[in-house]
Design a protein that fits this description.
- The chain is α+β, with helices and mostly antiparallel strands and 441 residues long.
- It has 14 helices and 11 strands.
- It is elongated.
């Protein structure tokens, strides 16, 4: 057998394999000999069929099967021996002139190679590392929400300006059918709030979405519409009033503080505000890190130049998956996945350059921390090590969970690497300023 690589360009090659009779003859003869006692041909007893007739009846199919085994094994060994870093899997080239009768059988396989490129994690950039602070306005609003949330609802029959209303938003065209509870103060325009005043249970109020809030993103929460739809959304929605409540605000006392944060952890309004600020800024920091990761990722994808074997990958996408894709469908799928593929290659390069490896201890430590956080959310703030490690062991025995957690560990290590290398400009902002920066507004 002869096997070689033929370069097309830096990211495309063809593997050419020439298979000769001696590569498969012995195995074919063995299969035919095994077939003879079982072969049935009209006019001959079972097991008494001449060998030449057995070869005539079964030889071609057996030859094709054995050649395919030889080709598959040789291709796999060649890719490994050449240490080829390929994208997808080798694709056999169609040869309309191919004949199984030839003494030399030539097979060709297209391959797409992982490109070689330079990665500069410390390149000059305009990435901003946001430090999000909870300002007094946000803290005071949260205090008010707490008082209302733990307050006492007082049913009413007619809506007044200070009341809460519950009901359902609807719009047939946009398929909106969303239950909601809100106070009239949420609206940007007092004229909108005034439409509700004086209404009763069962009444329907029609309002326009355009300009409803200072930040259109509030429509995502209120109407449960997607982010791409909220910008400039200009429709009318109907709200059917189902309940009306006044709220007697909860008193800011020790009973409320203990209910929220445990006995004795918060003892005053000042403590409450400090706790709200602390908790909010922890949450904001996580969101800011996600944005930093996204911004650095976008920068690296945009500024790290390399070619991909696009034509090959489009062909390859047509061969994978349960449903075969047309060329146009494969091109669309490639366009959707190209950015992710580029970052996957950049991520791999970054890990190699920085000698980042994922060990079992890394995975175990990450899983342990995740389990503790989840248990704390459900009120188990002091689980024993034995309890936690028992859960960790069960989780890590599930291969799907291991894969998912491994991806999260990689993402966490990449975030730490980017924070260290990217030289992002630090900027302190309020949460509203951060939201505006996040959505480009």
């Amino acid at each position: 057998m002869d096997i070689k690589r033929v370069a097309i360009n830096a990211v495309n090659e063809v593997i050419v394999m020439t298979v000769v009779n001696m590569d498969y003859k012995g195995q074919v003869q063995k299969r035919i000999n095994e077939k003879m006692p079982l072969a049935t041909v009209k006019g001959f007893r079972k097991g008494a069929v001449p060998k030449d007739l057995v070869e005539k009846q079964y030889g071609k199919a057996i030859k094709q099967e054995e050649v395919q085994k030889v080709v598959d094994l040789a291709l796999d060994r060649f890719v490994k021996s050449e240490r080829l870093n390929i994208l997808g899997t080798p694709l056999p080239k169609i040869n309309d002139n191919f004949s199984w009768e030839e003494d030399e059988l030539v097979f060709e396989f297209e391959i797409g190679l992982v490109p070689d490129f330079e990665l500069d994690l410390e390149a000059k950039n305009n990435v901003i590392k946001y430090v999000v602070t909870a300002d007094n306005k946000l803290i005071d609003e949260q205090v008010a929400r707490i008082q209302k949330q733990f307050g006492t609802p007082i049913p009413k029959t007619i809506v007044e300006e200070t009341h809460d209303v519950s009901g359902t938003f609807s719009n047939i065209e946009k398929a909106i059918n969303t239950p909601a509870t809100f106070s009239l103060s949420i609206f940007n325009d007092k004229k909108t709030a005034a439409k509700f005043v004086g209404k009763q249970i069962g009444d329907v109020v029609t309002i326009k979405t355009k300009g409803l809030f200072e930040d259109d993103h509030q429509l995502m929460d209120l109407l449960k519409v997607g982010h791409d739809d909220v910008h400039g959304l200009d429709i009318e929605v109907d709200f059917a009033i189902e309940t009306i409540n006044a709220v007697e605000l909860a008193e800011l006392n020790q009973d409320l503080f203990d209910k929220l944060f445990g006995p004795g952890n918060v003892t005053s309004l000042a403590d409450l505000k400090a706790k709200i600020k602390e908790d909010a800024e922890i949450q904001f920091a996580q969101q800011a890190e996600q944005k930093l990761m996204g911004d650095v990722t976008d920068f690296l994808i945009e500024n790290t130049k390399f070619d991909l074997p696009e034509e090959f990958l489009v062909k390859w996408l047509q061969t994978v998956g349960e449903k075969k894709l047309s060329t146009e469908q494969a091109k669309m799928e490639y366009a959707r996945s190209e950015k992710g593929l580029r970052f996957q290659l950049i991520e791999g390069k970054a890990m190699a350059q920085s000698n980042i490896q994922i060990t079992f201890e890394d995975l175990k430590a990450f899983t342990t921390n995740t389990i503790r956080q989840q248990m704390a959310q459900f009120g188990q703030t002091n689980p024993t090590d034995e309890e936690v490690q028992g859960i960790v062991a069960r989780v890590l025995s599930n291969q799907e969970e291991v894969k998912k957690l491994s991806d999260q560990v990689v993402a966490d290590k990449m975030l730490q690497l980017f924070k260290e290398k990217a030289n992002a400009t630090e900027k302190k902002v309020t949460y509203q300023e951060f939201i505006a920066a996040s959505y480009g507004e």
